[in-house]
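Input.
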Amino acid sequence: MRLRHTVGTALGALALVVTVPTSANAATGEFSYTYVDLNGANQFGYLENPLSGVCLEIPEATLPTQQPAFSAQNRTDKTASTFSEPLCQGTRYTVKARTGVGNARQKFRSVRFSV
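Output.
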C-alpha cells in the first residue's frame, strides 16, 4: 500500500510539472545598446540570453537622471520591443531577431523579448 501511495504521489507531481507552463523563456543570444555614462561618454551595454515575455529595464537608463539607451542591436533569436519609458511604457519600437538594428534616434529605457 505504501509503495502504491509513493508511486501515485510521484506521478502526480510529474504531471503537475509537465502541465504547468513556464512563466518566461530565455532569448538566445545578445542584445546590445549604447548608453551615456556619468561623464558624458558613450559606452556599450548588453543583455546576454535575456528572459523573454517579461519587461526588462536597461540598468544604465532607468533613472530619470540618466539618458535613455539608443542604437539597439538584436542578435537574439527573439524579436525585441524597446520602450521609451521604464516598465515597458511609452513609445515602442520593434527590433527584428538576429539582425535587427535600431538607430540613434530610437531612445529606450526598457525592453521586452517575444515568447
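DSSP finds one helix and ten strands in the chain.
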